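*Target chain*
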Amino acid sequence: MKQILLAIALIAAPVAAFTGFELYAGATTAKTADLGDLSSFKAIIADVRALAAKGDLAAAAKRITDYETAWDQAQSAIRPLNPNDWNTIDAASDDAMKALRKSTPSAAEVDKTLAVLAAVLDNPAHPAQ
């Protein structure tokens, strides 16, 4: 009987320790995954998309500069919260800015890159591409 209790204790202790660690690690990940309130960035990109949809790519290019400025100013606050998600958004941002700033921007490419950026801002961990 003592051997059975000892065996159960020797099995239960590591299982409990690993389970506790997984619960702790999962809670930590959930807290750090959030980049905070990105609504101001989403609003600017919605403006850019509306301008691009009207065919005013020059105005869209000017408006995306507002986004770029705000994004760069917020980098030191946002990036440490989740560097991976920040990098995902930053890469999508760069693609959209490049598409708009070409000497002859393609409306289709601009639309595509802005749609990707909007999706990434909504869910940086699982962007729809």
Summary: The two ends are 60 Å apart (CA to CA). Residues 1-33 form one domain. Residues 27-32 have pLDDT under 50 and may be disordered. The chain is about 80% helix and 0% strand.
